[in-house]
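We were asked to recover a plausible sequence for a given structure. The inputs and outputs are reproduced exactly as logged, with field labels preserved.

PROBLEM: sequence recovery
POSITIONS: 477
GIVEN STRUCTURE:
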């Protein structure tokens, strides 16, 4: 990652130099100073100005150069080349060991060493410098016979450049100045990378802080959503109770259909959202019959007169309109409309067939018909199962019908379980009611055909003063 940042920064600097067309480093044969000229009006961005000032300051700092050579005359000549340059401070050492002592005491930027020295060779010296002072730039000053060694050292990454003996002063100065510029560039990049790292750290902290705030807000929203959902579920249950008070048979039928629908949804492993939508639909699938004559709940459609028959055929559409006007219940209105459609297309009100019918409507068609077969037409539960098997792929989705029959056949409570009578106060979760539980005033409280739940027990305890708790009801378990 650091190499990538260095590369990107280097490219940026190169592009910036192209833009800084007013910049020049002037070096002449008799020059006494390095001139750094910026035509700042050519810069178009604030960052360019900042970089330009930073670059100028870095370049104007004194560059510290250490020349290492065991030839004293060579060292004197090197010092003479830069004696009048105020921007460069020269250090010399007659050998590698002396050079290392200088490096320990001075903050050297650039080391220039001869390869052939008597005590410690230039290669040995450079290796130690690289290990101990990796930030110090290294160059070689060598004779013609050592050029191959110098090139080899460059290729291995040991040194930056090499200079040959004897040298030309102008070439030497140009190479040294370029090396110092290179050092300063690396220093600027390193400094800016540190700043970038600090900024990234601060940004990460800000992101973490903001993420924590968002998570906290999200948790509050989830809590609120959970509360609203619980309130909505309680409202649905309340409306179902109101329907039961208004019309006993309709309320009992709806509660039993809800229970059967929950079992089938679980068997089909439906997603939570889809399951919830279908169960809400089961609560209200016959809401279009509220206020209708009692005979609609006790007689088969073929036994109804023309007026009642028309009301029955229209109740899915009426139910859709009732729920469609309530925003929170509008999503189930389509299921309500289609819950009397049949798989082969002979149902009502739209004559839909197969997959044209929503999964929720296909499920409720099945569970509602089963309940009607048992509690409205007086069929035994075994007979109802046989009818469903026979009508699979005709009236019912075969996949749903098969799953529903499996549920009924493996269930014991309410089908083949042991029958007995127990007092209302002794009811336990899991018992299947064979009789209605009514209030003292005669209103139905819990319909027959449902399985006792913990929530139902809590409800019985809450209304205990209005119930005959010693009254015995038939149950299977």
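RECOVERED SEQUENCE:
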């Amino acid at each position: 990652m650091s190499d990538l940042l260095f590369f990107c920064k280097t490219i940026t600097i190169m592009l910036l130099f192209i833009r800084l067309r007013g910049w020049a480093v002037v070096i002449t044969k008799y020059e006494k100073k390095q001139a750094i000229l910026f035509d700042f009006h050519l810069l178009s961005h604030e960052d360019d100005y900042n970089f330009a000032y930073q670059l100028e300051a870095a370049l104007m700092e004194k560059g510290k150069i250490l020349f290492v050579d065991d030839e004293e005359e060579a060292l004197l000549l090197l010092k003479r080349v830069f004696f009048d340059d105020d921007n460069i401070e020269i250090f010399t050492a007659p050998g590698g060991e002396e050079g290392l002592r200088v490096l320990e005491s001075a903050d050297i930027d650039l080391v220039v060493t001869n390869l052939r020295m008597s005590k410690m060779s230039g290669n040995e010296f450079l290796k130690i410098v690289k290990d101990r002072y990796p930030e110090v730039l290294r160059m070689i000053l060598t004779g013609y016979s050592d050029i191959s060694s110098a090139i080899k050292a460059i290729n291995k990454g040991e040194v930056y450049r090499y200079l040959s003996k004897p040298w030309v002063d102008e070439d030497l100065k140009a190479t040294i100045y370029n090396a110092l510029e290179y050092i300063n560039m690396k220093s600027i990049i390193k400094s800016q990378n540190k700043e970038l790292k600090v900024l990234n750290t601060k940004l990460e902290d800000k992101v973490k802080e903001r993420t924590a705030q968002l998570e906290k807000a999200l948790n509050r929203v989830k809590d609120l959503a959970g509360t609203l959902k619980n309130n909505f579920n309680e409202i649905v249950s309340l409306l179902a109770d109101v329907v039961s008070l208004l019309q006993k048979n309709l309320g009992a039928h709806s509660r039993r259909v809800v229970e059967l629908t929950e079992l089938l949804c679980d068997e089909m492993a439906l997603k939570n959202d889809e399951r919830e939508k279908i169960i809400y639909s089961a609560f209200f699938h016959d809401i279009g019959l509220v206020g209708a004559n009692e005979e609609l709940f006790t007689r088969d459609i073929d036994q109804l007169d023309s007026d009642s028959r028309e009301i029955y055929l229209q109740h899915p559409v009426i139910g859709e309109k009732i729920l469609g006007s309530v925003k929170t219940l509008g999503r189930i209105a389509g299921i309500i409309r289609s819950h009397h459609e049949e798989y082969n297309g002979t149902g009502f009100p739209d004559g839909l067939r197969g997959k044209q019918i929503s999964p929720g409507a296909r499920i409720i068609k099945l569970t509602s018909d089963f309940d009607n077969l048992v509690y409205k037409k007086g069929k035994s539960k075994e007979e109802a199962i046989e009818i469903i098997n026979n009508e699979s792929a005709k009236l019912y989705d075969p996949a749903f019908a098969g799953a529903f029959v499996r549920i009924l056949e493996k269930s014991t409570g309410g089908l083949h379980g042991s029958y007995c009578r127990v007092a209302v106060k002794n009811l336990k979760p899991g018992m299947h009611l064979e009789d209605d539980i009514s209030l003292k005033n005669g209103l139905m409280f819990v319909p027959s055909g449902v399985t006792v739940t913990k929530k139902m027990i809590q409800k019985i305890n809450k209304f205990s003063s209005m119930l005959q708790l010693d009254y015995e009801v038939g149950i299977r378990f």
